Amino acid sequence: MENSSAINSTHPKQTAGRVLLECKICGASAEYFPTLNLLRSDQSTLTIEQWNLISNLLNCFNEHSGLSKSERYIFEQNKLPLRYRFKSTSIINLYQVLLDNNQSLYINNRDFRSLSIEDRSIILHNTIVHIGNLSSNFILYKIGLLNQSGFYDAIESFIPPRVIPFAKRMATRLDMDMIIMKLFLAILSFSTFNSTTYSNISPMNFSNHQHLLDIQNKYIELTWRYLLYKYNF
Questions:
Q1: DSSP 18
Q2: Tens digit of pLDDT for each residue in 125-137?
Q3: Which of 133, 63, 65, 105 has the alpha carbon at shortest distance from 190?
């Protein structure tokens, strides 16, 4: 169930027909118009605190995932003549930027910071590779890079050619609701799957399993309620 003490939500402030929300993860303020504001929907079982947490997750991802840098990259590339666009060196640099930004998604999450230093280390070790790959490819899809034929020509220089068809098929499967994708990333960020599978490696013990389970339950319940809202179940 949701651990209400993990976030300090406030009710939205309404001024002159606008709704102002304060991001409790990033500290930023966001403006929403009532006609578009999810918080004002009366067709879901989500609480105001849960809608606020969704807003916080979206703001955190948009600010710390490398999305804005990627959008700037595609803008600058599109200004170049066709023959100079999407060279392998620039794409490798973009991937590096995205991977370098992944840790920021963790350290700017209030729930992650609430964990002990030992538990943070275990979570990062177990999940950051998966988060990095999924988040990076989602961003590349969102900025339209995966629809560029020049992109696939460029990556042939540093990945096996047999991977290209799989990459193209993967691009068609990333067309999903942005909120659902970001909620899934949040769930995966706190996943303990490496600690619940059989292997020859001794499992790492968390110092506070219950607190971690509370965080997992909060994001899973949040995703489930959003799915019910999104698809009118």
A1: E
A2: 889 888 988 888 8
A3: 105
Instruction: Tell which CATH classification among 1.10.3720.10, 1.10.8.190, 1.10.1200.10, 1.10.565.10 matches the domain 4-11+48-230.
Output: 1.10.565.10
CB-hemisphere CA count at 13 Å for 148? 20
How far apart are the C-alpha atoms of 128 and 132, rounded to whole Å? 6
pLDDT digits 0-9 by tens, 17-53? 444 555 555 555 544 434 345 444 446 788 999 999 9
Vertex 5 angle, CA 3 and 6, to 5°: 75
- Please tell me the pTM assigned to this model: 0.70
CA 179 to CA 170: how far, in whole Å? Answer: 19
Annotate 131-193 with DSSP letters as a single string.
Answer: HHHHHHHHHHHHTTGGG-HHHHHHHTTTS-GGGHHHHHHHHHT--S-HHHHHHHHHHHHT--G
